[in-house]
Amino acid sequence: MRPYHTLTMPCQFSMQRLALMCSPTTPSSEASHWAISEGKQVHCQILKAGTPPDTYINSSLISMYMNSGNLSCAEHVLAEFSQENTLANNSIISGYLSQGFVERARTVFNNMAAKDVASWSAMITGYTKNGLYAEALTIFQEMMVSQVCPNESTFVSSLSACAHMGALDQGRLIHAYINKIGAKITVKLGTALIDMYAKCGSIKCSYKTFRRMAHRDIVAWGAIISGFAMHGEACKCFELFDEMVAQGIQPNEVIFVAILSACRHAGCVELGHRYFYQMVHDFGITPSIEHYGCMVDLLGRAGHLAEAEEFILAMPEEPNSIIWGAILSACRTYSGQKIGNLAFRHLAELEPMSGDRYKLAGQMFSYAGEKENATRIRKFIKENDLGTTRGLSFIEVGCVITEFVSGKVDHRRGSEIHRMLETINRQLEIGRQ
Question: What is the pTM of this model?
Answer without folding.
Answer: 0.77
